User: Which sequence fits this backbone?
């Protein structure tokens, strides 16, 4: 009866003996750890659940003392080398002679909560930076207009053409600074939304990247044909995806090695998925993955801020503008990076209302 009850729990439960040999997993643990219990019985716990030496020592300490403990926000490595972010509780099972016969380990995954927390932080930081830039732009553009106007008036008063050249420099540089401020503000118009196929957008971006890279980069496509049409501004989405893809292209072309340079475009439909704090029935996920050198860890947290760039000749505006565009489409861009694998995930809800008519998704 106890086994039947535990098998029906949604909490992942693992039982190990005093030598940390696996004796039992319930179906929830099989799903979470992505293993088959028939194959894993009799193996060491480290085969499916690996942490540092201190954590293993804590398990042996619980066996000797008989005291339960809980570890929060642990990052463990599974058999398939994936990382699992979770809390877990270890409870010693006392036998007939008052010694610990085995340990029950209850696992509570926190990947989803961690992702939601990171997304909330990313959204809040982006909104804060947008407000800061908006205020800064207002303070810059007001005196800038006065400087430009004064330079025009002075230019009319001069008869010497050489002196007019100086005022023309002031006017041109004022215009250049105004354009930079406008770019900092991101898209100045609301999206002109319509029903569109996201793969058509990606195909356009792919063509542009192939032309700009002069065929030096292999483009790999892995599309999910089940994704329905989304509601969006085609021009803005092309620009947002192109900014991300162009960053990947530039990182690959600057890499001085002989390996095959690749960019992968992957699309997937995600059901009952949360973006920020809002849950959506259906979400379109677009992944842009490259095998370049990766993004330095300190840069990852500020990657979507305006004027932040890892390249000497970069403006730091492309990713900030892309994030603004995707935000206008109620989505978000996330980034995960390590050497040989940098992945930008663009997540956008697929709306259930299309052009005033309900659409089944």
Assistant:
């Amino acid at each position: 009866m106890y086994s039947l009850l535990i098998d029906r729990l949604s909490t992942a439960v693992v039982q190990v003996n005093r030598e940390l040999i696996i004796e039992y997993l319930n179906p929830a643990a099989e799903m979470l750890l992505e293993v088959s219990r028939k194959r894993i019985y009799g193996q060491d716990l480290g085969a499916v659940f690996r942490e540092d030496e201190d954590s293993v020592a804590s398990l042996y300490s619980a066996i000797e003392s008989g005291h339960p403990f809980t570890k929060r926000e642990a990052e463990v490595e599974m058999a398939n080398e994936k990382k699992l972010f979770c809390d877990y509780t270890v409870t010693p099972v006392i036998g007939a002679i008052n010694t610990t016969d085995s340990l029950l380990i209850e696992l509570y995954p926190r990947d989803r909560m961690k992702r939601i927390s990171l997304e909330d932080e990313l959204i809040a930081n982006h909104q804060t930076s947008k407000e800061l830039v908006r205020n800064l732009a207002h303070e810059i553009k007001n005196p800038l207009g006065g400087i430009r106007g004064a330079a025009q008036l002075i230019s009319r008063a001069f008869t010497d053409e050489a002196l007019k050249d100086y005022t023309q420099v002031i006017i041109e540089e004022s215009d250049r600074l105004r354009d930079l401020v406008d770019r900092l503000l991101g898209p100045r118009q609301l999206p002109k939304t319509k029903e569109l196929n996201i793969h058509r957008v990606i195909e356009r971006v792919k063509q542009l990247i192939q032309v700009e890279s002069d065929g030096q980069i292999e483009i790999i496509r892995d599309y999910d044909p089940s994704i329905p049409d989304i509601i969006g501004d085609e021009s803005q989405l092309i620009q947002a995806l192109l900014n991300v893809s162009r960053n990947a292209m530039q990182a690959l072309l600057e890499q001085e090695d002989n390996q095959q340079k690749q960019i992968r475009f992957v699309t997937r439909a995600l059901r009952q998925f949360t973006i920020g704090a809002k849950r959506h029935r259906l979400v379109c996920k677009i992944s842009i993955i490259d095998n370049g050198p990766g993004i330095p860890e300190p840069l990852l947290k500020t990657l979507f801020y305006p004027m932040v760039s890892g390249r000497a000749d970069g403006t730091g505006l492309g990713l900030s503008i892309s994030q603004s565009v995707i935000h206008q489409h109620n989505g978000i861009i996330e980034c995960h990076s390590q050497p040989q694998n940098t992945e930008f995930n663009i997540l956008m809800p697929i709306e259930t209302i299309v052009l005033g008519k309900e659409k089944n998704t």
Residues 352-361 have pLDDT under 50 and may be disordered. The radius of gyration is 28 Å. The chain has three domains: 2-109, 114-185, 194-358.
